[in-house]
Amino acid sequence: MTWIVNSTNAFQTATEAVFNKVHALPDAAIREVHKTISRPPKFHFGLNIATEALVVYIPQRSFSTKALMIDFGCVLFNNRFELATEANRPSDVFGTIPEPGIILEHTEIRLENLRFSRAVFLQTTVADEKPLVQPNSILTHS
User: Fold this and answer.
1) What is the pLDDT of residues 104-137, one digit of tens each?
2) I need a labelling partner for 140 at 20 to 30 A (CA). Which of 4, 36, 49, 68 fits?
3) What top-level branch of life does the organism fall under (predicted)?
């Protein structure tokens, strides 16, 4: 009889220990997520991409051979990252910067050789093109 009581007690103790460990898992997971969020990432990818952009033709009417041509030229995308701390505080940052600092991303998008023209089609090819605006470039920062 003692053996049965001891086995039951041991089983109950082991079961309670398992339940306590399972109950502690969500708390540990929450602590781990908070720790991961508060730790700055070890790396960031800076990109420098250049590609030829699309050309758009907008016809005057559905059956017209005359159209407005918008050539977006070359698209350049560039981004970089900077660690801002109280020691190297950017001029446009207000308030205190928390330790260990904050990561700032600087992005630049440039459209080079942007053109607007009047085009005349001959079946599927452009027969004539007259510039409406001289080739231009546009730059945006964020």
Assistant:
1) 888 999 989 999 999 998 888 888 889 998 888 8
2) 68
3) Eukaryota
Q: Are 53 and 112 in the same domain? A: yes
Enumerate helices (H) and strands (E) in the chain, giving the number of each: 1, 6
**Among candidate residues 75, 73, 65, the one with its CA nearest the CA of residue 129:** 65
Sequential DSSP letters for 25-85: HHHHHHHHHHHHHHSPPS-----EEEEE--EEEEESSTT-SEEEEEE--EEEEEEEEEEE-
Six-digit token pair at 106? 């600087």
One domain, residues 86 and 108? yes
Kindly report the number of other CB atoms within 10 A of residue 104's CB atom. 13
How many independent structural domains does the chain possess? 2
Residue with tokens 């998008």: 109
